[in-house]
Specification:
Keywords: Isomerase. By secondary structure, the chain is of the alpha/beta class. The chain has 7 helices and 13 strands.
Amino acid sequence: FRRSTSITNGRNLRCPLSYFLINNNTVIGVLKILTFQLEKILSKTRVLSTEFLLCRPLMQFGLSKSINTVVGKLRLSSGKYFNMSAVSFTVGRKDCSTAGVDVSKMCAAHHAIDKHVKDGMILGIGSGSTIVYGVQRLAQRMKDENLSVVCVPTSYQARQLIIDYKLTLGNLDTNPKIDCTIDGADEIEVGTLTCIKGGGGCLTQEKIVASCSEKLIIVADGAKEVNCLGQKWKRGIPIEVIPMSCKPTQQKNRRKVWR
């Protein structure tokens, strides 16, 4: 065995990797043992998954039908590593929430990027801690899959994230029509999916970008879910005041009141 591991550290999100060569007589037993050991390791670290690379084609072992019943947590994919045929087993956690809020956010953000982002898209990038994980995942996919995605920020923070991860920066002047925007929320009402947004101070720009988007994806961990808005978010409903629109807004409000 040659084993190397790495965990989440700042902006460098990496999954631990283990490489090994095995034969068809021992593969199932080894996978069982390794999966059991991984459960103990993953419960103590902030990692999302561990990947095993078998340097022989999977069909040689005849495991394609039995793999899910033998080790239910394995996800299969094939690929090329170091010019050798390989099979990749990704061992993931059953429940991301057991690793804490950070890993839950990571899971949600990764799922949104993997499911909704496609090559050639104009993508709105929102704000908040959850979106950081989304940008990290997007940067990884763009590098691995050679994707072409233009990113339109909803805030200064989002703009800096796009620049820091060397993504293609766009704006509403050149990209007035956005395919999809991925953003966070301060609180989400489960029954209606009504959200409180704007607690980070970017409410207006977030709404403008969202209004230009064909699809809006709100990414959040389970801690943001409530039965009624205001149960957890105690800072009130965010309102952004734009100085240049102060007088016109006052006049419109007066007309509405007197009518």
